[in-house]
Model the fold of this input.
Amino acid sequence: MEKINIEEIFGENVFTPAVMKEYLPKDAYAEVMQVMEHGGELSRETANVVARCMKDWAVSKGATHYTHWFQPLTGFTAEKHDSFITHPDADGKMLMEFSGKELIKGESDGSSFPSGGLRATFEARGYTAWDITSPAFVREDATGVILCIPTAFCSYKGEALDKKTPLLRSTQAINEQALRIVRLFGNKTATKVTPCVGAEQEYFLVDREKYLKRYDLIYSGRTLFGASAPKGQEMSDHYYGSIRERIGSFMKDVNIELWKLGVTAKTQHNEVAPAQHELAPIYESANVAVDHNQLVMETMRKVAERHGLTCLLHEKPFNGINGSGKHNNWSLSTDDGFNLLDPGDTPNANIQFLLVLACIIKAVDEHADLLRQSASDVGNDLRLGADEAPPAIVSIFLGEQLDDVVRQLVETGEAKHLINSEVLATGVDTLPDLLIDPTDRNRTSPFAFTGNKFEFRMVGSADSIGDPNVILNTIVAESFCEAADILEVADNFDLACHDLIKKYLAEHQRIIFNGNGYAPEWVKEAARRGLPNLPTMLDAVETLTTDKAVSLFEKFGIYTKPELESRKEVLYETYSKTLNIEANCMVEMASKQIIPAGFLYMKDLAGAVKLANNVGVSDRAARNILKEVTELLENLEDALEALKKALAEAQMVKDTKEKAFTYRDQVKICMDALRQPADRLETITDKSIWPFPTYEDLLFEV
Ligand code: ADP
Ligand code: MG
Done:
């Protein structure tokens, strides 16, 4: 077997600081490092030098083109390739060029990206601007080798049209406020606090040939029809199960591609549902983690194709088994090496940690609605708050030890006692005794403290992790700011800090919930506590422009009111468009595939009845099945007509918001109604007639 040398390939396609050091003159290198670490702008000369070196390096890797790689509000990445080619000289010889100007700023033609009204077609100009804090890389695929430059995407007037701009703004905000906090505790060396993120990515793999036979998977990334297979995930035999050869070779190639791109792919395993898997990289700065998560998704899709597979990133590709999410692990680290979320061995005595924790608890309680919104997308509606899914209520899990500390603080103002980590006695002499983690796992909590980080588990598998991190950074920046405002002017810091921790915890304790978040009783309990419950994506859209949200975003310069309005518009539009595609696809599959298959089977059955009568045997079985098939076809036809009617009505609605709600409250119900008789028909129809691969075929025969 071919040997993989990770050290050699890791980052080989990335324009890393090490590569820059090699290619750039000393002073240019120093300037780039300064801007990367502490902001500011490169001089025109340095930008030119960097561009030339970047091009030389990329060309040495075989690159022919460059692209400004950006993340519009579609949630995907976008790119337009330009070759390095320039006018041939008098001798007809071509020189490859790439200037500082081209590196730093690009213009995206066309107003074809969602802007929610921020950009009318007559002022369609959009600009991409180099994000020096995320490294450029070359990507190799069928297009050739392309130099990709991570960029932010803004309108002519500087309004954010993408996921990166607000993220960078929020990173600045939390840096500023977190520095105030660490200074209060005597840290004079830190110059920067960076939010760090590790995103665990779940996905499904199905056979590509079977995938291509299903219009629903092709058009919407999920099955719109399909009866459950005889087996689901009830045996728990897939989770952490041994990885099949075909999947293993896919994972190996994904890892290699990602390592080359400098993505620290670390953990891989089978997930709970059949055909479901997970990949987790090592955490890094939030900005790079967001970019890298896009690369992870893109790489999975491409590599899957090479292996005759299709990677489904949709949040709920199959009914009846688990959907996919993305766990966004978040912490704050200083450039002098501290993680502000690290409790140390004695969290009860670690006042800085307790203040940080209290601020985060306050932030999440005050803005639970925004956090929930940040994790919503159309697909995630099927995974959160729906029939088969946990409720979409934000709460915090702290684990027994911290929960006890919080309780003592609230009750007495002091946490004298610490429930200690116990030793787990295995009872086997040859096995080591293990120290139990003070935070146990609670897989049902949407926002769980896991040792030295918070894990936000609501995020959908197909979605960008940009928005959730914008919200986390911003809401925590706000509570840090409030705390710093009070503590910086306090006469007695220790006393004031102590009082503040107690106050925050007492006021926001309601958001802490250590029980089973999937239990129906929790919905009632959460309502009693006054926690917001926003079951669907559309319920959460308006949270973006409440007075509370607007003043938060404006205070820290994250979004302006028009930017927020535009984002709402895009969300409503996206919802309607997605449902429109799904509904159209159902109409097509029902009319052209499922109903015709039903008729074929009817014909067979009618033939069987006739035959039975001719030869003089009982026709009972054939007659019964024929009756049921006929009835199901009638139901199907009725449901199909109802869906067509609802769809036509929704398409007529003009107002974006009203339209989205019409899709949710009228079209979606008809879609569900159409699925029922179709799935029932599938279970009784001759398999050789059924027009597309079933759940069994997709989930168990990869
Ligand atoms: P678990 O979910 O089992 O606790 P890990 O500890 O392996 O799993 O972490 C899962 C993800 O969290 C990984 O992507 C990991 O890099 C990331 N992670 C670990 N520590 C931190 C941290 N301090 N800040 C942000 N992410 C982290
Ligand atoms: Mg985890």
